[in-house]
Design a protein that fits this description.
A: mainly beta, three-stranded antiparallel beta sheet, two-stranded antiparallel sheet, 5 strands, globular, B: three-stranded antiparallel beta sheet, elongated, binds zinc ion
């Protein structure tokens, strides 16, 4: 499995060098938990985590 | 329900099956084992102990339900990745999927109802379990609301700066603002002992 990194700002996961959601380049290889958000408007999980864009996220980012 | 099931019969159903319908029927009767009877299902003569709550919660009213789906051990991420592709491509109404370290051997699917969860899961490899009723959100919420890093910090702690301009440097905490989630630190590797204030999430307690 390719190593993914998580954005330290919004926690989105990416294999690239730029966060696909917030365009930050502050990415961490040290993360855990995965949250896939498909429908942020209706998702309680997205609401709780204040996620507004559909994407793949880490739960925790170090 | 039966319509949806027919629709998805073309898919490989694997060993997924539904038990929650039965569970819901049982809940409508005064079953002794059912601890989670929803207030709406109770007869109206029950004394209402509090006025109907105003929308005090900051969460929107959501009809989301949460289903814990058993997977082959170690394949939680694989299942989630396959679900991601399928749900995105087919625009299935699954709202979120969680793979949590605290739920080994399971993924948690958020959907408006079990049919939608089922539609997503049908034919996905490594899905092992059955959908049995739904989990209350409060059982999941605790895993999501992480304790902010700032609560773990205190004055005189030695920390490592893990992000921002001082990334990689060791520092000592001189002040913590729990409200703003900021900490003021003195950088130990710097010749100038100038206090700098940084986002608490950029700090990690150094191992002793
Ligand atoms: Zn980001």
């Amino acid at each position: 499995m390719a190593k993914e990194k998580a954005c330290r700002k919004c926690k989105a996961l990416t294999q690239g060098k730029v966060c696909p959601v917030c365009k930050s380049t502050d990415l961490s290889p040290d993360w855990s938990g995965i949250i896939l958000v498909f429908d942020p408007a209706k998702s309680l999980v997205a609401n709780t985590l204040e996620i507004t864009a559909p994407a793949r996220y880490a739960l925790k980012v170090q | 329900m039966s319509d949806k099931l027919k629709d998805s019969q073309e898919d490989d159903l694997g060993d997924i099956s539904f038990e929650d319908e039965q569970g819901m029927e049982a809940a409508e009767q005064p079953a002794e084992a059912e601890a989670e009877v929803k207030p709406a299902e109770q007869p109206a003569q029950v004394q209402v102990e509090a006025p109907k709550p105003a929308p005090v919660s900051d969460k929107p009213a959501s009809d989301s339900k949460f289903f814990a789906i058993r997977t082959t051990g170690g394949q939680e991420r694989m299942v989630a990745d396959m679900l991601y592709t399928k749900v995105t491509a087919k625009k299935i109404g699954i709202r979120s999927v969680m793979v949590l370290d605290s739920f080994k051997g399971y993924i948690i699917v958020e959907a408006p109802d079990s049919n939608v969860a089922y539609e997503g899961l049908a034919g996905i490899r490594h899905v092992r379990g059955q959908i049995r009723g739904d989990l209350p959100f409060k059982d999941i919420e605790g895993y999501l609301v992480k304790k902010p890093t700032v609560t773990e910090l205190s004055i005189d702690d030695t920390v490592e700066v893990i992000a921002g301009p001082f990334k990689g440097m060791k520092a000592k905490i001189t002040r913590v603002d729990y409200e703003k989630q900021e900490a003021t630190v003195v950088l130990l590797d710097s010749p100038y002992q100038i206090p700098v204030t940084v986002d608490a999430n950029y700090l990690k307690k150094a191992p002793h």
